[in-house]
Design brief:
The complex is a heterodimer of chains A (113) and B (115). Chain A has 113 residues and is mainly beta. Chain A has no helices and twelve strands. With 115 residues, chain B is mainly β. Classes of the chains: A mainly beta (113), B mainly beta (115).
Chain lengths: 113, 115
């Protein structure tokens, strides 16, 4: 079965630190990849997505992610985090042509001012 | 971006009663909607895929008779938790597929507490 794994359950950083959140998936075919963010008390919002083309995708709020096909990975990065980035981050994968979106376990990010 | 609205945002009910949660796509038509359940500090677990005009497709382990899903129009899907029990207490989230770039849009979620 297709699965998505996020390595870090809770990450704590100071402002201005660099961020990298890991995401790996198990499906071997063509996939669409997403990162969603859930701020406290709010609904999920799309940060960025990868369908095809340049494996380095840029999203909102300075986030980017790199798709490495050989590693089945889609890690999320941000060079300098802010206190307002405190949130829950979810990686999600959809098999191309399929309806289902499968989520990783989520990573809680806490940024200390 | 597209807007998906859920109602109610929170509900408290007695054990044994049924609760209906609505999910509406406000500015687009959604042939497909999804219902997720999220436990505290855990990920979203897909419960079912709801296609307009047809029966929902439930994920393994999800009781069809307990979680009734109806997708009667292109802008509305409902989830009814029948004969609710305390273990059904959870955060229920819907999402809708706009049919464009494959992106899903999520509702605000509905927190159900069964006493």
């Amino acid at each position: 079965a297709q699965s998505v794994s996020q390595h870090n359950h809770h990450v704590i950083l100071s402002e201005a630190a660099s961020l990298e959140l890991g995401c790996n998936y198990s499906y071997g075919g063509t996939v669409n990849l997403f990162w969603y963010v859930q701020y406290p008390g709010q609904h999920l919002q799309l940060l960025l997505k990868y369908f095809s083309g340049d494996p380095l995708v840029k999203g909102i709020k300075g986030f980017e992610a790199e798709f490495i096909k050989s590693k089945f990975s889609f890690n999320l990065r941000k060079p300098s985090v802010q206190w307002s980035d405190t949130a829950e981050y979810f990686c999600a994968v959809k098999r191309q042509g399929a309806q289902k979106l499968v989520f990783g376990q989520g990573t809680r990010l806490t940024i200390n001012p | 971006g597209a807007v998906v609205s859920q109602h109610p945002s929170w509900v408290i009910c007695k054990s044994g009663t049924s609760v209906k949660i609505e999910c509406r796509s406000l500015d687009f038509q959604a042939t497909t909607m999804f219902w997720y359940r999220q436990f505290p500090k855990q990920s979203l677990m897909l419960m079912a895929t709801s296609n307009e005009g047809s029966k929902a497709t439930y994920e393994q382990g999800v009781e069809k008779d307990k979680f009734l899903i109806n997708h009667a129009s292109l802008t509305l899907s409902t989830l009814t938790v029948t004969s609710a029990h305390p273990e059904d207490s959870s955060f229920y989230i819907c999402s809708a597929d706009s049919g464009g770039a494959g992106e899903l849009f999520f509702g605000e979620g509905s927190r159900l507490t069964v006493l």
